[in-house]
Design goal:
single chain; globular; protein serine/threonine phosphatase activity
């Protein structure tokens, strides 16, 4: 049974609210019930494959904002400039001092590649000159990610962080969920740095070089397009893998110079995402090593990472951990809206010990350790098998910083937690309806199919409503039933104690194509 709207929107619970609706599909000004403004796009040519987005986040953990990492720069200077609780705000195209430079200066040292140089010596960046604007370090004042029309919103709920960045001018939507654990430091660090890392590496690419990466198609040309998946270091193109199997692959390895295609461009975007994530990992662990004497707890802090980048008809995903991106699409042959069965397609991999492939991989990588998996957790500590941070499961030196029962005994062959992401690109077709982007707390209560069914039924009844918030309302109802509470009783349980009944939950629903469905996004704490 599905209940109505506004079940968890009592006064004082809704702390942050933001939303975006593309100008091309917006005939009237939008204002939601709690009086927060909805930002509409500028009067620009429509080039994206989405119409609007809705998001919501519900906290369960009692987590204080950790403002002292990186000498307080992350929490005191960077995140306040990025977070926008009530609406999207424009990002300056040419900041006087980049956020990454601020971090480097704050530590009075070079944090790995925080200056955003193209690469480290051991991992050369070798994109073909056709795709690159320059082999020099990217300029932060050029490229579509620094367009004047780029707008950002974001917020925090418990140990989760959520970000959304939109540029209608260039058909771009960037969504990220950072599901932190053992504290919010890693999620805060990602929120303060990963987008700029991605911006730096992506600006090396000539985004205008292939016309089919921008512009909304009717879907007639998509069936023949190649589908790319990068799983770890294994690159798949229509079921075939290239011979190179190391992590430093380049576009030259993938395509001959005279045969550059839009497919190889898409693969270059995926590689840029991976390089940005690798840099964030190196920078975070460097910061942990610098600060662990005063804060040894930092060695156990980590975060799952889910990034969704929509550019033209290409939907890119990067994930570490157990957050998911689920596509709602109609069965092949029933592409007309309202006809055929809507099905759920998971675009991301679940990196947990419950995933048999992941469990097998972890055990096989540590043949001399008979206690790799203990009590259903990696080294008895963590259910996820891939994550950013958690340095004590990756380096002996960081594990040694912990005392007593917190320290992992017999750390025989670290690292035990991987930072190798699953990467995927999906070409959006006219059959695709919407995408649900969610942290694992959502899927503790709903299967992919249930989540898709709930969202679909809701937007049919409430074309201008908030499906992400409704999804959370359904989750709270189910969690309350499982606990034997009413919804009001559950929501009155203080944060921290409420973690017993549900996790922090973050959800973003992106409506694809020209379906004007929703107008707002929310963060509830």
């Amino acid at each position: 049974m599905m209940r109505g709207e506004n079940m968890i929107s009592t006064e004082g619970e809704l702390k942050v609210s933001f939303g975006y609706q593309c100008n091309s599909y917006n005939s009237n000004s939008c204002e939601i019930s709690n009086k927060h403004e909805i930002v509409s796009g500028m009067n620009l040519k429509k080039t994206s494959s989405f119409s609007c987005l809705s998001g919501a986040a519900l906290s369960a953990n009692a987590t204080l904002a950790n403002t002292n990492i990186c000498n307080g720069v992350i929490g005191g200077e960077i995140l306040p400039s990025l977070d926008s609780p009530n609406s999207f705000h424009r990002i300056p195209s040419s900041p006087s001092l980049s956020r990454l430079d601020m971090l480097s200066s704050s530590l009075q040292s070079s944090m790995s590649n925080l200056s955003c140089s193209p690469s480290s010596p051991s991992d050369p960046l070798e994109y073909d000159s056709y795709l690159l604007k320059s082999m020099s370090a990217p300029s932060r004042s050029e490229g579509f990610l620094n367009s004047m029309e780029v707008q950002m919103a974001g917020g925090a709920a418990g140990e989760d962080r959520v970000q959304a960045v939109c540029s209608e001018e260039h058909g771009l939507l960037f969504c990220a969920i950072y599901d932190g654990f053992n504290g919010r430091d890693a999620a805060d660090f990602l929120a303060g740095t990963l987008y700029e890392n991605i911006m730096c590496y992506s600006n090396l690419l000539d985004w205008e070089s292939k016309s089919d990466t921008v512009g909304v198609s009717d879907g007639s040309d998509l069936d023949a397009s190649p589908h790319y998946i990068l799983e770890g270091s294994r690159i798949i193109h229509d079921g075939k893998s290239p011979s190179r199997n190391d992590n430093s692959f380049s576009i030259k390895d993938w395509c001959p110079k005279l045969e550059i295609s839009s497919g190889s461009f898409r693969h270059a975007v995926l590689d840029s995402l991976q390089r940005a994530l690798n840099q964030a990992e190196n920078d975070f662990l460097y910061m942990v090593e610098q600060e662990m004497e005063e804060r040894p707890d930092l060695v156990s802090v980590g975060s799952c990472v889910l990034v969704v980048l929509l550019h033209g008809n290409n939907l890119y995903t990067l994930n570490l951990g157990d957050s998911r991106a689920v596509l709602a699409t109609y069965d092949e042959g029933n592409a007309l809206r309202g006809n055929g069965r809507l099905k759920a397609v998971q675009l991301t991999e679940s990196h947990t010990v419950e995933n048999e492939d992941e469990r097998t991989r972890v055990i096989s990588e540590h043949p001399d350790d008979t206690k790799t998996i203990v009590a259903g957790k990696v080294k008895g500590k963590l259910k996820v098998t891939r994550a950013l941070g958690v340095g004590y499961l990756k380096k002996e030196k960081l594990n040694d910083a912990l005392m007593g029962i917190l320290r992992v005994r017999n750390l025989i062959s670290p690292p035990y937690i991987s930072t190798e992401p699953s990467l995927n690109v999906h070409r959006i077709s006219k059959s695709d309806h919407f995408v649900i982007v969610g942290s694992d707390g959502l899927f503790d209560f709903f299967t992919n199919e249930e989540a898709v069914k709930l969202v679909h039924s809701y937007i049919l009844r409430n074309p201008s409503g908030d499906p992400a918030k409704f999804l959370l309302e359904q989750l709270v109802e189910r969690a309350a039933e499982c606990a034997g509470f009413s919804m009001e009783e559950l929501m009155n349980v203080p944060a921290g104690r409420r973690r017993k009944y549900h996790d922090d939950v973050t959800v973003i629903v992106v409506i694809l194509g020209s379906n004007q469905r929703t107008t707002k996004a929310s963060t509830c704490v």
